[in-house]
Amino acid sequence: MDYDVIVIGAGHNGLVSAAYLAQAGYRVGVFERRDRVGGAVATEEVVPGYQFDLGGSAHILIRLTPIVEELELGRYGLEYIELDPLLAAPSPDGPPLYVWRDPDRTAAALDEAVPGAGDRYRSFLDDWSQFAQALKNMFLAEPTPWQLGRSMLFETATPLPWSEAARTISRPYGDVVAQYFEDDRVRALLAWMAAQSGPPPSAPLSAPFVLWHPLYHESGVARPRGGSGMLTQALRRHVVSHGGAVHTSAPVDDILVEDGTAAGIRVGGSVYTARAVCSATHVRETYDHLLPDAHRPPEAGTLRVGNGFGAMLRLALDAPVEYANAPDRPTRTDMQMLARSVDQIERAYGTFKAGRPAEDPPLVAMTFSAVDDTLAPEGGEVLWLWGQYFPYELAEGRTWDDIGERVADRLLDAFERYAPGTREKVVGRLFQDPAWLEAHLSLPHGNVMHLEMDLDQMFAARPSLEHPNYRGPVDGLYLTGASTHPGGGIMGASGRNAARVMLRDLSSWVERVSLG
Fold first, then answer.
1. Local structure of 270: helix, strand or coil
2. How confident is the model over 175-203, as a mean pLDDT?
3. What pLDDT, on a 0 to 100 scale, did the predictor assign at position 155?
4. CA 264 to CA 177: how far, in whole Å?
5. Which of 246, 274, 275, 428 has the fewest CB neighbours in a 10 Å radius?
6. Closest by alpha carbon to 230, among 29, 407, 100, 374?
7. Distance (Å) of CA 241 to CA 70, 278, 312
8. Which domains can be identified in the chain, with CATH numbers?
9. Alpha-carbon span 416 to 434, nearest angstrom
């Protein structure tokens, strides 16, 4: 055999799986269709002198895992820059709100800006920190009924009466923030952060998206020096240093199945064989294109990718951003949450459901050149504006080729309300609408979460109830990536969890062979 394990796709989850397998001594081959590794965790010089991330930018969730330490990624070039404050909420009408790494400092800052908000924030953290820890434990384990049941029964205690806690967990997260906070801006800050997973504030059973907020104080927010893609570059170096092979510009045509078992892949005219194949691509790509039709599972056509999600405008500026009511540097060193109210988020989602781009989009602004001078020339700035919600399929037969530039201008117009004069500083830009995300990053319908993050496609139902535990529909085929538990975002938990499943199965295979 050519390899013990072949990994299809060099996104961060595929590389995490490959790194654990290579570190354990297995022969690993990674095959990536693009000319570089990273997938949606990559950085490129799109405008001369400016480094643009092509996908995820803020590293939060991965810091809730032991991946960086277990793989010793610092030895392979990964250097994290800590961001503090974690979040800022500038306002066109007053001073910004801040969320600091220290919960007490956050509460004090909120009290100063909105009297009473700090005490409410402390109550929120006290009520839900233990529940958030239980969610983290679920993320770092296979979503088996035993694991989920144990976590829900024994790890999700809160100081609240059981009936009150259960009622809160089952509510929309917009209702939860309204339950704890009176001020519209504080509500918007927490709700907009929760909305980054996709569902709107009114979505039923979506409370956990805000109830894991206490974890941000544990993980913090960080940036790899040199760009988000430095994480995947470090993972590539790790794999190669442990004897693995990483092939780029090597699109996989199909998965070879022999006697009901994944036996390798075909790349152009070449065949590569392995004991196991791990597909780290979108699950729809795996099921609809890579697997032979005879082995396509019945549920493949029922997986919901949704109708898009968000869009990103990446800007190169010749001078730093200047917020009208937040001239201090800390506002530019974190994630800037630009949502005036929960209603603004809901209105954007309503427009999206009608097949139209949000007319008044809430934004996440990122100016990470304020902490990393490798991203822009001296005196310059990178400004990235993530907006929601933007449909892939548009009403009235329009296409993104028709409206893309106008919508990009709309995002910049929305930002100008907070930082007037930004437009005059622009020297280059890249607009990543849902069609661009599909074409360039292999994200069907532009959904950065792969599959919609609704309860019926989460935990043991991700990607489906039939195949939840990183094992595919044929023996020897494994799945990882955002299509699997725990979903999207720069976390790597799916890659680590899948590797642990494969390591158990491979050790059993070796034992059976040795017993002969």
1. strand
2. 97
3. 56
4. 49
5. 428
6. 374
7. 15, 20, 35
8. 3-43+227-303+453-515 (3.50.50.60), 102-217 (no CATH), 306-446 (3.90.660)
9. 23
Asked whether the beta carbons of 309 and 451 are under 8 A apart, the reply is no
Parallel, antiparallel or unpaired: strands 254-258 and 261-267 = antiparallel
Q: What is the largest CA-CA distance in the chain?
A: 74
Q: How many residues does the chain have?
A: 516
Which residue stretches of 263-311 are H helix? 283-285
Average pLDDT, the chain: 94
Give pLDDT tens digits for 285-323.
999 999 999 999 999 999 999 999 999 999 999 999 999
- The pTM assigned to this predicted structure is 0.96
What local confidence, expressed as pLDDT, does residue 147 receive?
63
Residue with tokens 């919508």: 407
Q: Are 143 and 460 in contact (CB under 8 A)?
A: yes
Question: 245: part of which helix (H) or strand (E)?
Answer: strand 245-247
Radius of gyration of the chain (CA): 23
HEC string for 300-361: HHHCCCCCEEEEEEEEEECCCCCECCECCHHHHHCEEEECCCHHHHHHHHHHHHCCCCCCCC
